[in-house]
Amino acid sequence: MPRRHIHVTGAPEAPLRAALRTLRSTLDVPDEFPAEVLAEAEQAARAPRLPAYDATGIPLFTIDPPGSADLDQAMHLARREGGGYRVHYAIADVAAFVAPGGALDAEAHRRVMTLYFPDGRIPLHPPRLSEGAASLLPDQTRPALLWCLDLDAHGRTEAVDVRRALVRSRARLDYSGVQQQIDAGTAEEPVALLRDIGRLREALERERGGISLNVPEQEIVERGDSYFLGFRAPLPADGWNAQISLLTGMAAADLMTAAGTGILRTLPAAPVGEVARLRRSAKALRIEWPHHTSYAEIVRSLDPTKAAHAAFLQECTTLLRGAGYTVFTEGKVPDPAVHAAVAAPYTHCTAPLRRLADRYAGELCVAAVAGEEPPQWVRDALPGLPQEMAAGTRRASTVERECVDIVEAALLRDRVGELFNAHVVDVQERDPAVGTVHLDDVAVVGRVEGGDGELPLGERIRVRLTQADPGSAKVLFAPA
To answer: What average pLDDT score do residues 195-200 get?
Structure first.
């Protein structure tokens, strides 16, 4: 599911860097790994648990942002004889390196997930593993959980298998390069099929009522000696790649529910009040939303390259706030057991280098396919995972939110007193003089207060920047 990422490149002004360092300290974010964890990681990197099954002959490739080294997934796509498609999807086998009950395991449970800051990240596992021995780097033989998903000509799943295997990626690709190859018609078939399968899966998503939010990334753009905020719209290849992950997460959920033991990623249907609030935001941003059109349909109609649509997609992420993890055992599958945005049972299982729960989901799926009981260490950890993941998700959300505030304040701190054109996208019911505005010319959504009367929801107004100080004062506007 989408999160708002902010990227800082180069060396923006020192106050921003200082404020981000302070934020790490304030939130008590884990930093250096303890010596015993590093020692265990080094030992594990030298002697991982290796599977007997050799699948290094499959020419896998990875698709990640440029410069990424923590590569969780590698894929190979092919046509099946007689029609349909075969998806091989290799997931880094973290359990091959992390011994249950050891120092590495305990540290992962303390960290829960990788945290992303604009100027770097705080990894779940030591880089010796996450960016080295466990990462599916090109031309390196690695232990993995190898999924084989057979699809029919319409992209529907016909057969699923997952087992431990030795794999070897042949190429490290990025989204932009993949998109260019596919658009130019120069992509080899295993890459070109990403569009075909991705589109089929997107059609099935529409059919079942699911929705994927193509949320733009907020990024800092350097212009001469100054920095500005902008949005980077995701490419179609981003969405097609995400569909392969969703396909695997849905298959994993089906395996676990059939076996009677598992951990699902669940999300209740959006409350009526939240959808009504989004309708107000759509009106404010001049987005037409006919009453007979569903939320999913309106989201699919948006163009993330347009500023107003990008702002609305950011607002839509509020409907994901109720997502959580649900554990079940002894065949007691929860009802409902679906993720409302996916519109099907679903689980997280494709990013074990960056998310704790995925290691356990992978083990459960391997056991289910083999017809075996899950390992005892997995069963022992299951009851506490939802609470651990909830705490980790809250910390990640706080980091994300505070980073947005810091970056916006840093880039606007010399513009206090300036006037901006903006749209009122939300108004507080308890105090209609307080609300939220989306600036027309800067990729900023901020709080507005201090006016004499009710803010005009949906109207364009002029606002004055009244405060912006990274690390101490969030961006605040007042009606001009």
So the answer is: 98
